[in-house]
Design goal:
Order of helices and strands: EHHEHEHHHHHHEEHHEEHEHEE
Strand content: 5-15%
Radius of gyration: 21 Å
CATH superfamily of the largest domain: Vaccinia Virus protein VP39
Distance between the termini: 16 Å
CATH class of the largest domain: Alpha Beta
């Protein structure tokens, strides 16, 4: 039966300690704060405190729905991370923010006067890309800036025309370097990740890419600027997957499975379609006022439907090969906390505990009133 409900208060001192005083977490200042629904950046210390309080031991940490990678990056110094997400743009971020334990060397790139120091070399390459400008218009300029009015007969304002050109120029250059073997796979993902992080800072949106602002946001008028992604060193090796979690059960055995599933009916593939397109740069078929890329039923998450979420969660809990399950969920979610507790019990988990606390929720519209929501953290053990 269900054990207890605890109201957890944030204690920064506790986050610096562990049952054996060896927990090392990445400072929040070194974790990109991406504008994604459910981004756990603001509650990472709470998650850490729960792990410490419950004396959850282990070496392998499986981030089942990695998303913005904030949780995996936060813990990568303390565990061997296995991260996964079905969205390709998340996989790109995983490769740069989690998998890399040292800076890419960019040894084969055909540029003169590059520093031998990896960090300085990367800054020089990013500066080159930041200053690169081509008159040739690409997919982003044609379909997601006001220039789309001449192509699609719909004026879209996701990016200024100048930034649209820069995105295309940078992305095509990265692709060309990779095809010419001037950069390897790690370097390729590192540069695209830097572009994705930069794009979020100049997007003319209020929250998601499900819509653009009619009036230009001041940040959208700033020039897109790539910046170096700091590498967090780790003594552990890490692995990233880009798959439906139900397809990789046989590939992952872990000590801790952290589950942060979609909690409402907003499909991520629809709300972040532009990030997916920039990451893939595959010139997809698009439609509608927002220029959404076509996606299939297989790309939809069954965790985003009231009809299928309970069945999906039970299947996930039953099939995870782990010692501990940690589940984050939101009080605005499709399932109630009592429903989740019942699923934990049905899946045979024991020692079930729940922590809950309030925090400022995600705002998909800048006019949304301040919304305090509750975050739930469920803990369970498996045989």
């Amino acid at each position: 039966m269900f054990g207890e409900v605890g109201i957890l208060s944030l204690n920064n001192d506790a986050c610096k300690k562990n049952y054996d005083n060896t927990i090392n977490v990445t400072p929040l200042s070194k974790i990109p704060k991406l504008r994604l629904i459910g981004n756990k950046h603001s509650i990472l210390n709470y998650i850490s405190e729960v792990i410490i309080k419950e004396k959850i031991y282990g070496k392998i940490f499986f981030d089942v729905f990695s998303g913005s990678c904030s949780v995996s990056r936060y813990f990568k110094q303390n565990y061997s991370i296995i991260s996964n997400d079905s969205l390709y743009f998340s996989y790109v971020l995983q490769r740069a923010l989690i998998v890399l334990n040292s800076y890419p060397k960019f040894e084969n790139i055909k540029m003169s006067n590059l520093s031998v120091n990896p960090e300085k070399r990367i800054n020089q390459i990013l500066e080159f890309l930041n200053n690169k400008s081509e008159e040739k218009c690409g997919f982003i300029f044609n379909h997601y800036t006001p220039a789309s009015k001449n192509i699609d007969y719909i004026e879209r304002k996701y990016f200024s025309e100048e930034n649209g050109k820069k995105i295309d120029s940078i992305r095509t250059t990265i692709e060309a370097w990779f095809n010419e073997k001037q950069i390897n796979e790690n370097e390729y993902f590192y540069l695209i990740a830097s572009l994705l992080i930069a794009v979020q800072k100049i997007s003319n949106i209020s929250g998601t890419y499900g819509a653009f602002n009619k009036i230009w946001d001041p940040r959208a008028k700033k020039p897109l600027t790539l910046k170096i992604i700091e590498i967090i060193p780790s003594s552990f090796t890490h692995k990233a997957f880009n798959n439906d979690v139900f397809n990789i059960f046989d590939k992952v055995v872990c000590d801790i499975a952290y589950i942060d599933p979609p909690y409402n009916e907003r499909q991520y593939i629809a709300n972040y379609h532009i990030l997916e397109t920039i990451a893939r740069y595959d010139n997809p078929k698009i439609s509608g006022k927002t220029g959404i890329r076509n996606y299939t039923e297989q790309e939809k998450s069954i965790f985003c439907s009231k009809k299928t979420v309970s069945t999906a969660m039970l299947k996930l809990l039953n099939n995870l090969k782990t010692k501990y399950v940690i589940l984050s969920y939101n009080s605005d979610g499709l399932m109630s906390k009592d429903e989740i507790i019942a699923l934990f019990e049905k899946a045979g988990l024991y020692g079930i505990k729940l922590y809950e606390f309030q925090y400022r929720g995600f705002k998909s519209n800048k006019n949304t009133h301040k919304n305090l929501v509750k975050e739930y953290i469920f803990i369970g053990k498996k045989e």
